[in-house]
Fold:
Amino acid sequence: MKVAKKYKIAIVANTTWNIYNFRMNILEILSKNNFDIFVIAPVDKYIFYKESFPEVTHIQLKNLDRDSTNPLKDFLLLRELISLYKKIKPDLILHYTVKSNIYGGFAAGYLKIPSIAVVTGLGYAFIHNGFIKKVTKILYRYSSRFHDKVVFENIDDKTLFVEEKLIDNKKGISVKGCGVDTHFYTPSKTKTNKNKFVFTFIGRLLYDKGVVEFVEAAKIIKSKFDNVEFWMIGEIDHSNPATVKEDDLVLWVKSRTVIYHGFKDNVKKYIAQSDCVVLPSYREAIARSITEAMSMEKVVIATETAGCREAIEHGKNGLLVPVREINSLAGAMEEIINMPEETRLKMGKEGRIKAINQFDERLIAHDIFKIIMDTLKETPEN
Structure:
């Protein structure tokens, strides 16, 4: 049933890629409920998402440089957001990603517009100690005062923000990631190369994703087993300080430690050909690569860290290893290889059950929609 009143909502993100890959479920539920939707994001090739939602108004965000530390650029972003919000006059603004959350919060507060921030992961600034981390925490602490709610994509990030006094505990809400399409990512019986045991890493090629640990563990396993391959899928993110050096990637490929498949918009067929998906990340929201693998009944190895331990129950649907521990990671890989096939398949089935019951994108969309409606109802003029 549609919402009786036609609300106007603005959704802000740092890329259109972010909208296409992670927020289509939100656009769908808002559209079905009669919202007038404005998406504010820098335009990139993923603007074709509009073909699925012609009713959405997309406004190009010109001054958002997600990796810049130039205060002048950030001031221009703040000014641009204030100008856009004045023009649109939304009933509520839904912010995604760091700079949108911070400067969008200031802009919404200045104009007294109800606002929700969604923290989609803590990223480089929180993983590495230093000046950027200190400044980011200060900015989050002040901007969060202007958000009605602050939503986190895992429980650990919410706990950290509360402990660090970056938000008021009453404002914080956690959901289970951005969701996975369990109707699309379904189990496949089409593994063609049954003579090879395939471990696959899927994600941006960042050192913080545990790429080096994956490669070094691969070397250990390949020295013990002949029938094992290690696949890597993802792109080098040149704008991220933790991006993998191209020389490193060339060396790994040249030495045949890994098979690099490049960046893929659709990873389904690669997951289908994998026996185990591996993510040795230092910190996540709730990684889509993990939930996609779970949804396809693949056993997963991940690190005992935020966003991974919420998805993986050790010994039930996958294995958890300590962060940055290469030998532990290699040990988990060896355990999976030596595991009876029926045990591995059972773990995969447990993963799909959990993906359906906790991480399905329709469930997440419903959770976010409820937060939106609760916020609107709490606003005096509504």
The mean pLDDT is 93. The radius of gyration is 21 Å. The domain at 197-358 is CATH 3.40.50.2000 (Rossmann fold).
